[in-house]
Amino acid sequence: MPEEKQEWFLDRNYWRENRSLIWSKKLTESSGKAVDRVVKLLDMKEGDSVLDLACGFGRHSLEFAVRGFRVTGVDLNRELIDEAGEKARSQGLDAVFVLADMRDFAEQDSFDHIVILYNSFGYFRDPRDDMRVLRNCLTSLLPGGRLLTGVVGREVLQRSMPSRSSRYWREEGGLTVLEESTVDEDFSWIDNRWIVLEGARRRNCEYGMRIYSEEGMRDLMRRAGFDEICAYGDLSGAPYDEEAHHLLTVARKPPVPETGRK
Asked: pTM score, two decimals?
């Protein structure tokens, strides 16, 4: 029986060697602006508790903490979690970082808000794992709390990649990068491959993620137990329409019903 291939996101070398490509300087420097938009979109109040799933080295988590939120960051990459924790300690920020898999992490009624940003939802080949994540989020949210997710929308890809494949190259930080993307026939999964040239050295890496339509995300959220589900085209709250480049979804954990007096 062939050995099962390790899931790409568990490969530490992928994150270590491609860090400058995954999180460019421009992207990292925009983290504060992104957090300001999230705060407005979710109507967050200073002192609220925030869970940042797939937090990486804490580029959003730390910005939330700087703004006075109580932050927990979760990631399964020990190097990135250790880095985020050290930054929080050195800056005296109210943020803790936990090494855990989002498919397993849940803390009952603990957070006012949960964010899964920058296409960090949908990595798993088994779609049941996405539901596990959402149900963990429902458990972890306080009643009335909200979850924000960001994915590459199916509608966006159908407009931008009607042939279901693309290939382009770019130069960045002394590297030459060829990126190939292929979408399956029903636009439910995208496979990406990078060929990175650094002088005489060449390396290849692959990653993939599930693709959701707006209605697909709404249905998934409803089945997980969320209500008041809204879709946006960016963090400013723009509509998810033909101009959108991403699919952002905000959903609420239903509040506890009030009991009537007799």
From this structure: 0.92
Token match 């990078």: residue?
194
**CATH number belonging to the domain at 8-152+212-252, selected among 3.30.70.20, 3.40.50.720, 3.50.50.60, 3.40.50.150:** 3.40.50.150
Phi/psi of residue 222, each to 5°? -60, -45
- The reported pLDDT for the residue numbered 174 is 82
Mean pLDDT in consecutive groups of 10 residues from the start of the chain, 262 residues? 67 86 86 96 97 97 97 97 97 96 97 95 94 98 98 94 92 87 95 90 92 97 98 96 95 85 49
Structure tokens at 255: 């509040």
Place of tokens 């954990």: 253
In the chain, where does DSSP find H-type helix?
A: 12-17, 19-22, 25-29, 31-41, 61-66, 78-91, 127-140, 154-160, 214-224
Which of the following CATH numbers is that of domain 157-208: 1.10.287, 2.60.40, 2.20.130, 2.60.120? 2.20.130
Single-letter amino acid code for the residue at 174: G
H or E element in which residue 213 lies: none
Beta strands 175-183 and 189-198: pairing type?
antiparallel
Tokens of 60: 């959003």
Judge whether 65 and 85 are in contact, CB under 8 Å. no
